[in-house]
TrEMBL record:
This is 2-dehydropantoate 2-reductase. It comes from Photobacterium indicum. It catalyses: (R)-pantoate + NADP(+) = 2-dehydropantoate + NADPH + H(+). Catalyzes the NADPH-dependent reduction of ketopantoate into pantoic acid. GO terms for biological process: pantothenate biosynthetic process.
Amino acid sequence: MQITILGAGAIGCLWACRLAKQDHHIHFWTRTDKPSFSIVLNDCVQTKDHAQTPLAPELFDFTSNNIQSIAKSELIIITVKAFQVEQALNDIFDHIAPHTPIMIMHNGMGTQQHVKTRLVDHPILYATTSQAAFKPNKEHINHTGLGPTWLGAFNQSAQGFASLAELFHQALAPCGWHHDINEPLWQKLAINCAINPLSAIHRCQNGELATPQFHAVLTQVCHEVAAVMQAEGYAVTAKKLKQTVDTVIKATAANYSSMYQDIFQQRKTEIDYITGYLITRAKVHGIAVPMNTQLWQDVKLLEQNHDDK
Ligand code: KPL
């Protein structure tokens, strides 16, 4: 397939390399005007005993920023941060062929309303992944954690694209098609509401959140998120969410969360699309979410401190 990926961040590059390995033609649309670039992937795979084994580094060459390649693409994958989706769509909108499916994959929720009004004719899919990757510099990608990816239709015209889940599964397993993509999006939102703000505020690796000092706050975050999810129609319990969060903390113990990295590098975070989205939905349902509100305020303060420097 001819595929254009918008956003050469860690997740975009990881999928690009894995799809290229399956002989798909990957083209990038980035914020630079470079016509090509190379990436070294430090990949890993899971062995039968569920351990992660590193693979030898592999070099990938990609073309980029070619308008004609966008027009020829059979699939557009958007992996920019949630707050960049609107701009990314504006940049390429006039060049996407009619009926080309557009898949959107980012942490958090809340871009759906804009996407719906901007892309009336195109099949739109959303995706969420628990694969973890880290980009230590412009030329390298480290695949740091394995986890499932879910794909699903966001509008009626995307219903016929379930075969894309198989294509993604071949590239980077496991990947499945979900009949209600909002469910895995909410599940991932819950994980991000728990891990991302705390790891950014306390400047720690995800694994440190397993220590007893974080037990009460994580439990309350999960209670609040479960109440909002239930009001949205999802049959979750706070206990089950906490178990899931604990499992992810363990599986990604050595990771620095994306929010930690954003704060560390003095970049804008996705807090408004993670905890901020939860707070917005909580207000709609009349549910109090004091712990999440406190975490949202603390992260906003950290972001403000960048602006003051
Ligand atoms: O999605 C993540 C992130 O860092 O944004 C987790 C799951 C917390 C892994 O670090």
